[in-house]
Request: fold
Amino acid sequence: MKKNGAQTFIECLIKEGVDTVFGFPGGAVLPIYDVLYDEPLRHILVRHEQGAVHMADGYARATGRPGVVIVTSGPGATNTVTGIATAYMDSIPMVVFTGQVPTALIGNDAFQEADIVGITRPCTKHNYLVKDIKDLPRIIKEAFYIATTGRPGPVLVDMPKDVLMASAEYKYPEKAHIEGYNPTYKGHPGQIKKAMDFILSCKRPVIYAGGGIVLANAAEELCALAVKLNIPVTTTLMGLGGFPGTHPLFMGMLGMHGTFTANMAVMNTDCLIAVGARFDDRVTGKIDEFAPYAGVVHVDIDPTSISKNIRVDIPIVGDVKAVLKDMLKHLGAAASLREHKKGLDEWHKQVDAWTNAHRLSYKQEAKGKIKPQFVIEKLYEATKGRAVVTTEVGQNQMWAAQFFKYDKPRTFITSGGLGTMGFGFPAAIGAQVALPDATVIGIAGDGSLQMNIQELATAVQYKLPIKIAILNNMVLGMVRQWQEFFYDKRYSHTCVSVAPDFVKLAEAYGAAGLRAKTPDEVVPVIKEAMAIKDRPVIMDFKVDPFEDVYPMVPAGQPLNKMLLV
Amino acid sequence: MRHTISVLVTNEFGVLSRISGLFSGRGFNIESLSVAETLDPAVSRMTIVTRGDDKVIEQINKQLNKLISVIKVHDFTGEEHIERELAMIKVSSNQENRAEILSIVDIFRAKVVDVSPRSYTIEVTGDEEKLRAITELLRPFGIKEYVSTGRIAMARTPKQR
Ligand SMILES: Cc1ncc(C[n+]2csc(CCOP(=O)(O)OP(=O)(O)O)c2C)c(N)n1
Reply:
């Protein structure tokens, strides 16, 4: 039977296993919305297309399944760009479907025409313009295949309206075959052996794990390897949750706002084992002084990540889960391992000494202003860590990374690569849509939250009980901190004290609003918020506007030049 | 160092901009680029001449391979290969210098492809050095126009023993 393009499209999504799409209608996608009227799958109606993309992103990060977005042509499509770039930088599987003007009008500056394939070429893993309905099923198959395999990433499919209206018979292909796309999954056995021999010969090893651990679902293998070899572990911001935050081998995050221990360990290690990480500048600090004594083993599925920023001694291209498994297989008899572990005693003593010298800390005065770190710790205690946490960008993000402990992968969701303010709130919505029974906490800055606050209507509409915790410092805190440290306290345009009353705002949208102004109000507010199950709740914590994030490695400095409290 | 890289790509809309976007977006430079269909019309070949240190060239090769539309990347550097470019050179001529120009054309095994009372248009193929040499010899006569293709390259077949 012949189907039109829109029906074909929806049926292909269902065959692909898609259960939820995030979208916003418009002229070019009317044929699709007509099919959606009969509710063949769940459609979450957003209030801004950027919100849709971040929601799909949150959905993907929380589950590992690709997020799916449907938007119209022109402004609908261009509104997705920040979201797509955010997902691209963090390698999140996602497929964005955009409507396009009819093929005959493409290139004519038609109403609501934008060259979205051209615009998103540098921020998608791949993208397509569907020119013929016959190609639609194959392209959808390929789009999901590309988005979810190898190093994952967003794929965009642009569908002209006439293609959506044309009719044809179709068959959804079982498999995608793309000649130029064959990711390497299995690591080279010779390299793996070389790496293991090297690791076992070293006295001061460190594991540096990135978001790849989470993406590859390799947390278990990572933990097994670290424990078997007794190697201390640090993760990047994106890697948090990829190794248990409460594990004795965990040193905390490294980099610009990393712990003293993690940064010192990296600067003194003789063997840096990088897995699923990419040596981002926020991690390495001054690149030519990074890990000066280390032989570097680097495991990554993306060959371009290897030797991009720093020289690597033993590169291993492959899926980190598969490679870690092979590494574990390589471990010899328990007796020789015992020998190896004993050799690391000195190193562990040194690591402990660093930890004892400088722990993450802050001081909460009982009668003073609320400290933002205190709020995070109380959220952790209230949930016993059993929550999915999303963050905005800035100080709130760093405190959420430092003072909440993530024992499980996919429980910490943040925009690491692009650092997109406005990400965390819609991402929390996406995570809650995916995991209706989870406690989802969106840690927010008052600045960032306002960048996608319109999605509060979405959260209310779908009765999503997400908990938004605003660390309300009435400033663009992280930028203010840089102005304090590096611009002589000239606080240029970072005061955002003209802001809505967030409690009233929540109520205006039909959500719950709570406020804490003093330290003793923090726990009761959290408790009250946790009891609300039928709608979103905003907790407005009035925090100390002059609190800074420590430690801090000033940009361009080596990791051991930390500013400490 | 300069590298000549051959890239097989799927012959589809937008592929050229994927490649050029990769170079511009990452700050790699393209000295020359030539593109044409291969014998298989579904596949095109791009020959790219670029420059960079080992690290940059390694990234260029890897980044090209990463593009979904790229089927194969081959760097000719360090390998026996033949390179060719084609140039058309329009040079001023008159009664006195015609013979001299023609002898240069002859020496370089070039061809006169258009003649007017005041000019010769010369077609010449060869590697970069040869093109530079003939251009230098013709320059004194007055070059009115110079058009050349990008470079193309092919590996030499290993000689049998
Ligand atoms: C879209 C966007 N614009 C600008 C920035 C630059 N920026 C980084 S952090 C920050 C301040 C964020 O303020 P707020 O959300 O209140 O969080 P805080 O740092 O106070 O916790 C800004 C403006 C950004 N990351 N994203």
User: Anything to note?
Assistant: Chain A has a mean pLDDT of 97. Chain A touches chain B at residues 117-118, 121-122, 125-126, 129, 131, 146, 178-181, 302-304, 307-308 (CB under 8 Å).
